Amino acid sequence: MNTGSGLKVIAILDYYSSPCFKCILTPEVFIKPHLSVSLSLSLSLCQMDGSVGPMRVLVTGGSGLVGRAIERVVKEGGGREGEKWIFLSSKEANLVSAEETRAAFKKHRPTHVIHLAAMVGGLYRNMRQNLDFWRNNVHINDNVLNMSHEFGVVKVVSCLSTCVFPDKTTYPIDETMMHNGAPHDSNYGYAYAKRMIDVHNRALFQQYGLKYTAVIPTNMFGAHDNFNIEDGHVMPGLIHKTYLAKKEGKPLHVWGSGRALRQFIYSLDLARLFLWVLREYDEVEPIILSVGEEDELTVKDAVDAVVEGFGFKGEVIYDTSKSDGQIKKTANNAKLRKYLPDFKFTPFKQAVKETCDWFAANYDTARK
Amino acid sequence: MKIWPPSEPSLQETDFNCGDTGEQEMTFSLRSCSHSAHNASALTPDLCHHGNTRAVSQCMGNKMDGSVGPMRVLVTGGSGLVGRAIERVVKEEGGGREGETWIFLSSKETNLVSAEETRAAFERHRPTHVIHLAAMVGGLYRNMRQNLDFWRNNLHINDNVLHTSQEFGVVKVVSCLSTCVFPDNTTYPLDETMMHNGVPHESNYGYAYAKRMIDVHNRALFQQYGLKYTAVIPTNMFGPHDNYNIEDGHVMPGLIHKTYLAKKEGTPLQVWGSGRALRQFIYSLDLARLFLWVLREYDEVEPIILSVGEEDELTVKDAVDAVVEAFRFEGKVIYDTSKSDGQIKKTASNAKLRKYLPDFKFTPFKQAILETCDWFAANFDSARK
């Protein structure tokens, strides 16, 4: 089929039957053969008023902290008429395998992807297994991005982290700095695999005009987290420990001095922002999703909020022989504020209380 | 290949439980070939590999004097510029040793982008050592157009070769990086510690990151399994059996091809760029001799720059003059300054190499150019272009 402007088009429209559907090809979107025989086609489901029409959104890592938050936000009004949301978990598809990834895409035929799936771990596991974190994540990411391209997915939003930024850097960090030096030695496998998502996105845009992008959250917390004390992250670890300390009538032992500074973002706020990025954010360069620098808190502030959230009355001991990790990793959310000056984050104490309540109510089934 | 399943917590146990299940095989791997007992195998706890690999690595005959015994060396990219040079050094200059088998693999035989084909090649050849040269390679202009393909294809080739080497118990892999993958904003000269310190040049970031990740993979293999896979970092290579394609090739082979044609057709020689860009050129035969030394003697995981010294850095114009002289081209030379120069400067320090091999002699530049031009003229019809 040739368009009036002489573009060559190979379009196979075998799966989308909505009457609202239109196929719009932009000059940058050429179909080029490459080694894996791509049948890539890109469809824009724009309606006359510029809004995005009916979508099929595949959320990889759908059963994790962020996936569950997105699911809740979608079901409570974040989703739109006619949209289909599929929350994929590792039980259904092992994304390290190209074949299983392809099968999942064939089955679900997404138009959009929110890519959250990863091999994730705490400080100590990363330190032991950098090879596995590198290889498994690079395969997961390559499979998801490549299949998305092959299956004509219009947009993919992947998930990075401030922890993959250069170890030696100035603060606050911003979106332009991610590749400017080697990551921290404890998790370079994970860090490089995540950074390469951004490399892949930029190359997809340069070669095919696709605007796949990524977000960079700071420290996340919320319901459905991994609350494992050894392998988990700071907030879920604190919540689990405080719950046990209260239940067993023991002191709460906090690792580190409590002085380390973090910006915490509630998973439900992150989910709302993810949906905005999916629908409205039009850049390939990633975007930091975080509360502002003015809302940076110490670990001690977090401890106090969790203690209050559980009504814990016992002793709190700071074990200063344990590492604080990075003392500071302040991220700049100016880009987010430029787009959404009025976005309101859930007040910290309220978010912590909701999470503690959830954990107490779901202790038996919570991942730990 | 066993793929890590997140839903099976038992596989998250640390390394010490492998002996309990009969189905899992242990990886025996020597930390260093300087151990002297013949056929000794040293099992250390951190080399125990859980998961379904079939890796069994045996000490391939360490002799009392610490030298490496009989080897089966697989050279990927064996038909390329460096592969052919290694083949010549091995076969015609005594670079190979008694009892060694050298296998030169080409893409005609195996597509290393495919994990299955890579495994089949390893099963067929059972190497003890690998020199990994295979890559999707191109000149400035092709890289600029196809960063995605350069990233993905090279990532897969490298992951397949390194991972399959580990699975098949390969004792050592020497991969091939390049100074062109170093950070763009940097101080000079470059040295081995600087490779990851910033973003690569915009023109070839796909290729650059794929190559850098070889070093990441090597370090992680050493950290998790004690394997000492390593890599070399050559500067600008040239020699017989190069890819002389003018659109896609590199500066030296492109110049050689263009000068040959200009002379033959009596037209001017059009050089892309201003001629001011600076490069350190290394002859493929010198590189091959150094590769063999790295394979046999160099014991670090950190890569090593293989290059002539900073004092031997030349401009593209110097290269043009040498090629013109070699072909005795008498026509006009035009520098097309509308075309990109690529990186103006990428001076690399060879101090580390000189620390190990203070007396290594590089072939004089003009002699190397003359040999290459003579080869090209004699082999024009069959040369890759």
UniProtKB/TrEMBL annotation, chain A:
UniProt enzyme class: oxidoreductase
EC number(s) recorded for this UniProt protein: 1.1.1.271
Span of domain NAD-dependent epimerase/dehydratase: 57-292
Keyword field contains Oxidoreductase: yes
Gene3D superfamilies: NAD(P)-binding Rossmann-like Domain (3.40.50.720), UDP-galactose 4-epimerase, domain 1 (3.90.25.10)
Pathway named in the protein's UniProt entry: Nucleotide-sugar biosynthesis; GDP-L-fucose biosynthesis via de novo pathway; GDP-L-fucose from GDP-alpha-D-mannose: step 2/2
Superkingdom: Eukaryota
Listed CDD domains: GDP_FS_SDR_e
Xref: Pfam families: Epimerase (PF01370)
Gene Ontology MF: a single term: isomerase activity
InterPro entries membership: Epimerase_deHydtase (IPR001509), GDP_fucose/colitose_synth (IPR028614), NAD(P)-bd_dom_sf (IPR036291)
Keywords of this entry: Isomerase, NADP, Oxidoreductase
Record function comment: Catalyzes the two-step NADP-dependent conversion of GDP-4-dehydro-6-deoxy-D-mannose to GDP-fucose, involving an epimerase and a reductase reaction.
PANTHER family registered for this protein in UniProt: GDP-L-FUCOSE SYNTHASE
Family statement: Belongs to the NAD(P)-dependent epimerase/dehydratase family. Fucose synthase subfamily.
Protein name: GDP-L-fucose synthase
Organism: Cyprinus carpio carpio
Organism classification: Eukaryota, Metazoa, Chordata, Craniata, Vertebrata
Automatic annotation (TrEMBL), chain B:
SUPFAM superfamilies xrefs: NAD(P)-binding Rossmann-fold domains
Highest taxon of the lineage: Eukaryota
The keyword Transmembrane is annotated on this UniProt entry: no
Enzyme Commission number(s) of this protein: 1.1.1.271
Pathway: Nucleotide-sugar biosynthesis; GDP-L-fucose biosynthesis via de novo pathway; GDP-L-fucose from GDP-alpha-D-mannose: step 2/2
Any one GO molecular function term: GDP-L-fucose synthase activity
Keyword line: Isomerase, NADP, Oxidoreductase
Class of enzymatic activity (EC top level): oxidoreductase
A Pfam match: Epimerase
NAD-dependent epimerase/dehydratase domain boundaries: 73-309
Listed InterPro entries: Epimerase_deHydtase (IPR001509), GDP_fucose/colitose_synth (IPR028614), NAD(P)-bd_dom_sf (IPR036291)
HAMAP family, sorted: GDP_fucose_synth (MF_00956)
Function field: Catalyzes the two-step NADP-dependent conversion of GDP-4-dehydro-6-deoxy-D-mannose to GDP-fucose, involving an epimerase and a reductase reaction.
PANTHER family: GDP-L-FUCOSE SYNTHASE
Assigned protein family: Belongs to the NAD(P)-dependent epimerase/dehydratase family. Fucose synthase subfamily.
UniProt name for this protein: GDP-L-fucose synthase
The species this protein was found in: Cyprinus carpio carpio
Record lineage: Eukaryota, Metazoa, Chordata, Craniata, Vertebrata
Gene encoding the protein: GFUS
